[in-house]
Amino acid sequence: MKTQIARTTPETKTRQSNKSQIDRPENLGKPQMKWGSDVVAEVTRRLDLKYIALVPGASYRGFHDSIVNYLGNSNPQMVICLHEEHAVSIADGYGKVTEEPMAVALHANVGLMHASMPIFNAWCDRTPMIIFGATGPVDAHRRRPWIDWIHTSKDQASIVRDYTKWDDQPASAQAAVESVLRANQITRSAPYGPVYICLDAGLQESSLAEEISIPDAARFMPAPSPAAPRDSVLKALNAIDKAKFPLILMGRVSRKQADWNRRIRFAETIGAAVLTSSNDPAAFPTMHPLHFAAPCLRPSKAATMLIEKADLIISLDWLDLAGVFRLSLGTAQTQNPADKTIVHCSVDSIRTNGWSMDHQALAAVDVPIFAEPDQFVAQMLDELDAKKTPKLKTRSEMKTFRIGTMRRWASRRRRAGSR
Questions:
Q1: What average pLDDT is seen over the chain?
Q2: In sequence order, which residues have a C-beta less than 8 Å from that of residue 247 and are 6 or more positions away?
Q3: Measured between alpha carbons, how far is 25 from 372 in angstroms, rounded to an integer?
Q4: Which residues make beta-bridge pairs with 105?
Q5: What gap in Å lies between CA 137 and CA 176, rounded to an integer?
Q6: Residue 312's CB: how many other CB atoms inside 10 A?
Q7: pLDDT recorded at residue 5
């Protein structure tokens, strides 16, 4: 059966362009901000949030109307879903791939309760996400009988507060500007996580009594990731120089191509074995000669052998570092810590709270590095380049281990094939 290669033609480009216009309102003109919800929509556009996943609901009908008739359903463009769990899960996947937040809109308290599970997933995944919710009208005099009352909750954000980074319920159009800008700043700051803004239905549908200014969003962006202290970088380099069998545990790291390339160069330069987790996105090429064992969540026999053999372990924000040591070495790290030099690079500790135990068990660490892993790798390479460290440093211990491991695996395959 022959396969035909699809080619992009002017006709297909035109069809694609026409499809993108299907959900655009006609004759939009040049709409002006007139309503509270228009203000929220305008700030959202300034943040370049390309999509908003939602299940339409009456509590945010004002915001929905502004997305269509003020923004023209563009930037953000609506992604209509059948369930709130779908909406948040789509944003979770988008954030994982792009490392950029996607917007979500959830209807009242009931939509938030529906969405609570995938919001918790996004919290555990460290995914950036801006969630717009709604309640009310907060002014009881403006509520429609029955339906508005059951869809109104005091402190609605408390449903998800234990597993979101921040929440707010602005009480004016001016406060909404600040709320959206702050939400964007917080969700984009590592460690990432979802944020929640609850919009009063009454505020959304209130006409603006005065002109509202929208500032330059670029002045409200998050600060750059902190650099690792140079003393800590030098301690890590000293540990590498002394090591006979270094192992890098590559965990929650950047998706950027430049960072991927630097991680490869770092492992090659210091001659370290690499282990990756099947619980995280790809961090290192699994076919690379330094990737000694298949990715895994619970350590396999091959991974356990690596961890046992290593005299230096460099953790790049490895999820559950103490847990993997307990499974591979057989001891709790606060009772009988690993007899190895441990370098652990992560900023995750600043997001730990008392409700969720997703911070995992506590590991003993000799060189703690408070920085994002790829920032640390870049700094390490700068120091190694300054020292003119040759690439692909050879280690006799590692060669011996690899040859012995390959022989054992070949022997197992032969035995399995003879059965």
A1: 91
A2: 272, 273, 274, 275, 306, 307, 309, 310, 312, 313, 314
A3: 43
A4: 54, 132
A5: 16
A6: 23
A7: 45
Q: Which of 269, 390, 260, 355 is nearest to 316 (CA)?
A: 260
Taking the CA atoms of residue 15, residue 17, residue 20 and residue 24 in that order, the dihedral angle to the nearest 10 degrees is -110
How far is Cα 268 from Cα 251, in angstroms, rounded to an integer? 18
pTM for this one?
0.90
For 92, other C-beta atoms within 10 Å of its C-beta total 23
Q: Where are the alpha helices (DSSP H) in 318-368?
A: 321-329
What CA–CA distance (Å, rounded) separates 70 from 30?
Answer: 8
CB atoms within 10 A of CB 83: 13
For 310-358, write each residue's pLDDT tens digit: 999 999 999 999 999 999 999 999 999 999 999 999 999 998 999 999 9
197: part of which helix (H) or strand (E)?
strand 194-200
Alpha carbons within 13 angstroms on the beta-carbon side of residue 63 total 36
- What is d(CA 337, CA 329) in angstroms, rounded to the nearest whole number? 9
Cα separation, 125 vs 92, whole angstroms: 8
Distance CA 99, CA 372 (A): 14
314 CB contacts (<8 Å, ≥6 apart)?
236, 240, 246, 247, 248, 249, 272, 343, 345
Which residue matches tokens 């026999």? 301
3-class DSSP state for residue 367? strand
Rounded Cα distance, 406 and 412, in Å = 10
N-to-C CA span, the chain: 37
With residue 368 as reference, give the H or E element that holds it: strand 367-369
User: Could you report the per-residue pLDDT of 77-134, keeping only the tens digit for each?
Assistant: 999 999 999 999 999 999 999 999 999 999 999 999 999 999 999 999 999 999 999 9
- Whether residue 367 contacts residue 342, with contact meaning beta carbons closer than 8 Å, is answered with yes
Return the higher-pLDDT residue of 356 and 23. 356
Q: What angle is formed at CA 402 by the lines to CA 339 and CA 295, rounded to 5 degrees?
A: 75
Both tokens assigned to 386: 């300054």
How far is it, in rounded angstroms, from Cα 93 to Cα 90? 5
| Torsion angles phi and psi, residue 212, rounded to 5 | -110, 125
